[in-house]
Design brief:
It is a single chain. By secondary structure, the chain is mainly α. It is 65% helix and 0% strand.
C-alpha cells in the first residue's frame, strides 16, 4: 500500500500508479525524491475513498433483468449463447422503431434497452466494462451525477440508434457502419458505457494539469486506445453491432463532461441538492419505463407473435430504400457525372426483394437507366478547366426518361405504402 495516498500497489512495482510515489528508496533517491504536493495526495485519497454504490446497483439491476429474460426464454442453455427469442426481447423493452412510432407510441423503449441484453456473452462483456469504468466516474463525480450520466447517455444512444434506421444510407462500408437496413430489435448497456468513456475522456483533458500521474494515464488521451479499438470492432461487426448507439453515447457523455462542473474532493457547492433531484428524476424515469413495459408486456408479446407482418413491412422498406439510393445515384450521374459506388448501389437494388410484380418492373427499368447513364458518363468528354462550374445535363433523353420513370414510381409507391405498411401498426 502506498504510504502517500493509500492506494494498493502491486508486488514488484517501483512506484504508486496513482500518485507516483516510489515504494522503496535508496539513500541517494531519498535525498533526490520530491514528494507529491498535498493537493495531489488529498485528491487521490478522497477519490479512492469515495463509494461506488450505484455502480453495484446497476450491475445487479442488469443481471436481474437478464435472469428474468432467461426465465421467459425457457431457461435453456442454448439461448444463453445464441440469443433470446425476438418476442422476449420485444416484450422486455428492446428498441424497435415501428413500436415507438405512432400509433403504438411505446416511448419507454428509449429507456429500457440500456438494461436488457441479448445473450450471456453480451451481458458479461457489458457488466465487466461497467465494473471497470463505472467506479471511476462515480468516485470522481459522485453518485448523483453518475446516475444522470448513465441514464442520459443511455437514452442518447438509443435515440441515435432510432434515427439511423435509414436503408437508403446503408450503402457503402461507412454507411453500413453508421446506418441500418432493417428495423430490428436493439438492446444493451453499451451506449451508456460509451457515455461513461466519453465522460472520462473529456475529464482527463480538462484537468490534465492537476491530476495525479495514475489518473493522467487512465483518463483523457489514455482512453483513446479503448475508443479506437471498440470503434474498429464495430466497423468489423457492422450490421450486427449497433455503432450508432455507441457513438451517440460517446458523444453525449463527452458533451456532458464538457458542460458539467466537476466538484473536487473536499469542496462544497450549493448545486448538490439540484443534482440529487436530477438523480431521483433519472431513477424515476427508469422505474416508469419498466412500469410501462410490465403494463404492456402481454400486448408487446402479442405484437411479436406476428413476425411475418413485421418482416413484410421491413422488406418493403428495404426495397424502397434500395430504390431510393439507385434513383439518387442515377440523378447524380445525369446531373453531375458522379459514378462513385454505382456498382454497390445497383447490386443492392438488384438483391432487395420486390414486394410485387410492378415493383420488380420499375426496378428493372431504373437499373436500365442507371446502366445507360453510367456508360454515357464513362465516354463523355470532360468539360474544360475554364468552363462553367455547373455541368450540362449528361443526356437530355436520359433525363426525360428518368423523369417519366419517377412519375410512374411515385404512383406505385403511394399505393404500396398503404398496402405494405399499415398492417404493422395494428
Amino acid at each position: 500500500m502506498c504510504r502517500s495516498c493509500g492506494a494498493i500497489v502491486g508486488a514488484g512495482e517501483s512506484q504508486c500508479a496513482v500518485c507516483g510515489a516510489p515504494t522503496s528508496l535508496t539513500p541517494e533517491q531519498l535525498r533526490a525524491y520530491r514528494p507529491a504536493d498535498r493537493e495531489t495526495i488529498k485528491f487521490a485519497r478522497a477519490v479512492l475513498s469515495r463509494p461506488y454504490i450505484f455502480t453495484i446497483v446497476l450491475l445487479i439491476a442488469n443481471l436481474f433483468v437478464f435472469m428474468l429474460m432467461w426465465h421467459s426464454s425457457g431457461m435453456t442453455s442454448q439461448v444463453l449463447w445464441t440469443s433470446f427469442p425476438e418476442n422476449v426481447l420485444i416484450a422486455y423493452g428492446a428498441k424497435l422503431n415501428y413500436l415507438i412510432d405512432a400509433p403504438n407510441n411505446q416511448w419507454w423503449r428509449f429507456i429500457t434497452p440500456m438494461f436488457i441484453h441479448v445473450n450471456l456473452p453480451h451481458v458479461l462483456v457489458n457488466m465487466y466494462s461497467l465494473w471497470i469504468v463505472g467506479p471511476y466516474v462515480e468516485k470522481l463525480y459522485g453518485s448523483a451525477k453518475f446516475i444522470v450520466f448513465w441514464v442520459l447517455t443511455g437514452i442518447a444512444g438509443v435515440v441515435a440508434s432510432y434515427l439511423t434506421v435509414r436503408p437508403n444510407l446503408a450503402v457503402t462500408s461507412i454507411g453500413r457502419f453508421l446506418f441500418k437496413n432493417l428495423d430490428v430489435p436493439s438492446a444493451g448497456a453499451s451506449g451508456a458505457l460509451f457515455g461513461l468513456v466519453g465522460v472520462l475522456f473529456v475529464f482527463g483533458i480538462k484537468f490534465r494539469r492537476e491530476l495525479p500521474e495514475g489518473f493522467k494515464r487512465a483518463f483523457g488521451t489514455g482512453m483513446l486506445p479503448i475508443i479506437v479499438i471498440n470503434l474498429f470492432i464495430g466497423f468489423v461487426g457492422r450490421g450486427i453491432i449497433d455503432n450508432a448507439a455507441h457513438l451517440g453515447g460517446l458523444l453525449s457523455g463527452a458533451a456532458l463532461a464538457t458542460v458539467v462542473e466537476y466538484r473536487r474532493p473536499g469542496e462544497r457547492r450549493g448545486m448538490a441538492m439540484a443534482w440529487r433531484i436530477l438523480q431521483w428524476f433519472a431513477l424515476a424515469l427508469v422505474v416508469v419505463g419498466f412500469y410501462q413495459t410490465a403494463r404492456n408486456f402481454n400486448h408487446s408479446a402479442q405484437l411479436a407473435l406476428h413476425p411475418m407482418l413485421s418482416q413484410q413491412s421491413q422488406a418493403f422498406y428495404a426495397f424502397a430504400g434500395a430504390m431510393d439510393a439507385a434513383k439518387q445515384k442515377t440523378n447524380a450521374i445525369i446531373q453531375e457525372r458522379d459514378v462513385r459506388d454505382v456498382d454497390a448501389i445497383a447490386q443492392r437494388a438488384l438483391e432487395a426483394p420486390a414486394p410485387d410484380a410492378r415493383g420488380a418492373e420499375l426496378r428493372q427499368h431504373l437499373l436500365s437507366i442507371l446502366a445507360k447513364a453510367t456508360s454515357a458518363a464513362a465516354t463523355a468528354t470532360p468539360p474544360p478547366d475554364n468552363g462553367p462550374r455547373r455541368l450540362p445535363v449528361l443526356d437530355d433523353k436520359l433525363a426525360a426518361e428518368m423523369q417519366e420513370w419517377q412519375q410512374q414510381y411515385d404512383e406505385w409507391l403511394r399505393q404500396a405504402v398503404q398496402k405494405y405498411t399499415t398492417i404493422t401498426s395494428k
